[in-house]
Design the sequence.
């Protein structure tokens, strides 16, 4: 039951991230809007697979994050899995021969590209606002969105709440 809840939480967060990414990409008039939407939806695919196929490991990672919220997810993943989920996901996308553009836009290491930043910020906002809009990490996300979308922080906040309603 706990693993199923974990899976559903990731799926809900992924759906929210895809909605944010779609809105951000449309605002930016990105030519690859559908791919950005898909990339955000699939961003946490490796974590979903972990909840399904290795629930005890997923629960171990989750427990470590709950015990120390200051710990970085990537650090816990390396400790438990000997790999970061983002690296595992990139390997799976290449092995499964998913479209190159989708694989590239899903690669968190290329944050210099606006499409990748769009996906990454959508995922961060979805993760940081999953429980409430009072997460201390959200101001940094909003600042980064101001730079990406060329909007004020008040406009970004209004946009985020409009998308999430």
Sequence:
């Amino acid at each position: 039951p706990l693993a199923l809840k974990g899976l559903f939480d990731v799926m809900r967060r992924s759906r929210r991230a895809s909605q944010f990414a779609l809105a951000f990409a449309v605002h930016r008039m990105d030519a690859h809007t559908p791919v950005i939407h898909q990339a955000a939806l699939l961003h946490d695919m490796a974590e979903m697979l972990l909840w399904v196929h290795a629930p005890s490991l997923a629960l171990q990672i989750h427990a470590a994050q709950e015990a120390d919220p200051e710990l970085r997810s990537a650090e816990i993943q390396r400790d438990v899995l000997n790999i970061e989920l983002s690296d595992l996901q990139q390997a799976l996308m290449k092995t499964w021969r998913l479209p190159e553009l989708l694989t590239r836009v899903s690669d968190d290491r290329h944050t210099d590209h606006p499409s990748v930043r769009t996906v990454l910020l959508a995922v961060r906002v979805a993760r940081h606002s999953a429980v409430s809009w009072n997460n201390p990490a959200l101001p940094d996300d909003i600042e980064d969105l101001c730079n990406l979308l060329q909007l004020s922080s008040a406009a970004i906040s209004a946009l985020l709440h409009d998308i999430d309603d």
